[in-house]
Amino acid sequence: MGQKGGQAVALRISGDKAAFYGCKFLGFQDTLCDDRGRHFFNGCFIQGTVDFIFGNGKSMYLHCIINSVADGNTYISAQGRSTIADKSGFSFVHCNITGTGSAYLSRAWRKSSRVVFAHTYMGTLVNPRGWDDKGFPDRHRTVFYGEYKCMGPGASTRKRVNYVKMLTDEQAKPFMSMTFIRAKTWLLPQPNF
Questions:
Q1: Residue of 51, 71, 86, 138 marked active site
Q2: 44-185, superfamily in CATH?
Q3: Deepest in the core among 11, 88, 92, 126, taking most CB within 10 A?
Q4: Could you report the per-residue pLDDT of 125-148, keeping only the tens digit for each?
Q5: Which chain positions lie within coiled-coil regions (predicted)?
């Protein structure tokens, strides 16, 4: 018997080369376990509270709605890259962050967590600090958190943590292309950005 409102994974994807189009993932804590492998999420709706997109996948989220149903502080993602040599990471492109709570974009679940938000609308729920080190200040040097040309009231960078990277066009380019997940050979047809 489960606890009402407790942790429950709606989907766990551990295989390589998986794509999801127009899917709805509803949960509470830990909604989507993007475990490992290369994945593509296009036009999906992902809802939850704490760490509701988590894992060590190398994934592109394109045109997705990310909806928080939290009451207080929450974390949209917790990416699990352990070393800089690991190629995993989450890239959110042209997404829309909506809902309730005070949402951090990600927290440093693992030492070298890597998450990028590009051209994403961030609602008022996004915490002005944006990112969280999970109480490990030494991770400021090892995480890779980036933002690129995001918009909306939650996209203001005035109070962002000092270890977030405000990406240049050149730095953002690899995260906004299907080459991020090396999809040219397995995802056909290629989506439009």
A1: 51
A2: Single-stranded right-handed beta-helix, Pectin lyase-like (2.160.20.10)
A3: 92
A4: 999 999 999 888 999 999 999 999
A5: none
